[in-house]
Amino acid sequence: MTQCGCVSAVNVSLNCYNAVKIKDFQYKSRACHLKLGSGCFSGSEFMGTSLNVAYNHVIKGRSLNDVYPLQVRCIDYPRPELENTVNFLEAAQLSASFHSSPRPSKPLKVVIAGAGLAGLSTAKYLADAGHQPLLLEARDVLGGKVAAWKDDDGDWYETGLHIFFGAYPNVQNLFGELGINSRLQWKEHSMIFAMPNKPGEFSRFDFPEVLPAPLNGIWAILRNNEMLTWPEKVKFAIGLLPAMVGGQPYVEAQDGLTVKEWMKKQGVPERVTDEVFIAMSKALNFINPDELSMQCILIALNRFLQEKHGSKMAFLDGNPPERLCAPIVNHIRSLGGEVMLNSRINRIELNNDGTVKAFLLSNGNMVEGDAFVFATPVDILKLLLPERWKEIPYFKKLEKLVGVPVINVHIWFDRKLRNTYDHLLFSRSSLLSVYADMSVACKEYYNPNQSMLELVFAPAEEWISRSDQDIIDATMRELAKLFPDEISADQSKAKILKYRVVKTPRSVYKTVPDCEPCRPLQRSPIEGFYLAGDYTKQKYLASMEGAVLSGKFCALDIVKDYELLAARGLSYAEVS
To answer: Which end of the chain is more exposed for a tag (fewer CB within 10 A), N or C?
Structure first.
């Protein structure tokens, strides 16, 4: 097993392309042996001037400033060549259409509720088209489902563990358009799964760089003999043939089946689901394969197998509000738009004809505009729907779309954990989904002496109302299986310095069977009212890519409706 990109107990060398200040020393050599008092990242901009960590506590007589005798290897891989893929080019063309659209004689004022990725995307592309978006966010932080907060020690904790795939063409274009490609820390092209029957061990699917898609994915599967036997691989491949031959129409037709039902129908051994697709289902939608629509899995597999770098992963190099959302806001403001925090919508005020007159904020202010967008989670939209809209089929179908609960756990330990990687890891635990040692994987969170594990606790429905301590206790019991030599449930080994539990009672929409017909288009039947969000109609389902693409589609509909909306604004101005 390669040691590249992981925490290793052996001496290692790595190439340092950036000058990095560690404890006020400047390291500039291209090859340097790194011990646990120093560190190096390469391949993207470094965010701070010092990686000092001010922990002066003492546990059982040992100072936490002690340096542990192991080596940390943190490598950013080069950005993959994504620009020539069909999906990337289509996304780039859609982005370019906003710049090339005719400049409006009178820009529309478009009021957008929700500053998550969907709302930010909508506002960004409307501004590119020459309009004036006003983005209203209820909370005091940007990002929605990618929000994060800083604690009193200066450490960040996030809503979720966010991974940026090569198969996210609109997200990748967005980074490029903002000039922040270097903020993505690309990892080696692998998928790494814990082995529950072999505590502390992992099994890898390594995608060779020299092979094109889908051969690189096929090779990765064939080379892994620890999780699936050859007969299981063959039966799974045969089961997938209809999806490979039938393409998108076949994929969409599987919306009515759960993953478990589809596997049984295709004659795929149940152990394939147990070994691979429980982990994959929880990573994609935070639920198990007996609930998840097979369409969701097939869409992911299609992207991963059809694009050479589709399954390649990157971490953001710091907290999402500052490293991703703030550049979007700066772009919007530079083009005349505005973003307002602490602006919670209390009610949608209607005109006599049932169209939107204004958004009434909780502070009593009325915000009027030429068009209105709701880019909040679907559950919030349903709470604020005006009574006279609720029986309209377009809105009534939303009843089936419900956000799934999810819990994100952060644990800061008193030492550097050895049994981890500079990568996303699939826990294959009954309680945990994916996790990462963010003290290694993310520059802003880097710490040479202590690990910070960020873990997704899923499925979370039975745990969302439980106390933080209950959740931490359960998490530690699972971690004791993943780190048998380093972590015990009673903390007799690694000690917890602190923890944060972030609960989201309603996150992305739950992708259960027969949801697809309920997903709305971005243009509503109410003139001048639009929707954006990963639950709206777009091919990437509940994901960051889906949120960004929904915002582009929403902005595109508004641009297309310019003449109608401009005339509507004039007519209401004359009436008033």
So the answer is: C
